[in-house]
């Protein structure tokens, strides 16, 4: 698989961070809600949830639900099966950026994320199919 470009990876991380608006403690991972990962603080919650925030929350929830897979013990298979919903989440967040964002550079990055993640999903699905998954 071709590695995700640094710029596209930065966009995915920025969009993931933007999708989290609940306050986090210093020992809580802002992206995944797990203790002790980054120690980062989330932005204060808005008084009224904007359509973009609602869309990011929904995309994040679907991504995390999809990543909650039964593990096989085969690290290669488990990695690929978990990455497919992760990539779908990145695509969905990029579409939220396209629907609600205005910065031309970010819009171009979002379009690149969609293209690359769709390509990688197809590659991972083909890899799994060859192995009977």
In short:
This protein is an all-alpha fold.
Structural summary, described in words:
- With 133 residues, this protein is an all-alpha fold.
- 62% of the residues lie in helices and 0% in strands.
- The protein contains four helices and no strands.
- The chain has helices at residues 6-18, 51-67, 75-100, 104-130.
- Helix 1 crosses helix 4 (104-130) and helix 3 runs antiparallel to helix 4.
- The chain is flat.
- The chain starts with 5 loop residues before the first helix and ends with a helix.
Features:
133 residues; mainly alpha; 0% strand; disordered N terminus
Q: Distance between termini?
A: 18 Å
Secondary-structure-derived class: mainly alpha
Q: Radius of gyration in whole Å, from Cα? A: 16 Å
What amount of the residues lies in strands?
under 5%
So how many helices?
4
**Overall mean pLDDT:** 78
Largest sheet: none
Q: In terms of topology, how is this protein built?
A:
Blueprint: H1 6-18, H2 51-67, H3 75-100, H4 104-130
Helix pairs in contact: 1-3, 1-4, 2-3, 3-4
């Amino acid at each position: 698989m071709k590695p995700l470009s640094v710029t596209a990876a930065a966009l995915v991380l920025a969009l993931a961070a933007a999708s989290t608006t609940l306050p986090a403690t210093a020992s809580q991972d802002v992206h995944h809600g797990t203790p002790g990962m980054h120690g980062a603080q989330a932005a204060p919650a808005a008084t009224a949830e904007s359509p973009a925030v609602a869309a990011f929350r929904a995309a994040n929830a679907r991504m995390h639900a999809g990543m909650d897979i039964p593990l096989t013990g085969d690290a290669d298979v488990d990695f690929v099966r978990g990455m497919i919903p992760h990539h779908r989440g990145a695509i969905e967040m990029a579409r939220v950026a396209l629907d609600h964002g205005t910065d031309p550079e970010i819009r171009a990055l979002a379009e690149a994320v969609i293209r690359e993640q769709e390509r990688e999903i197809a590659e991972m699905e083909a890899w799994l199919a060859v192995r009977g998954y």
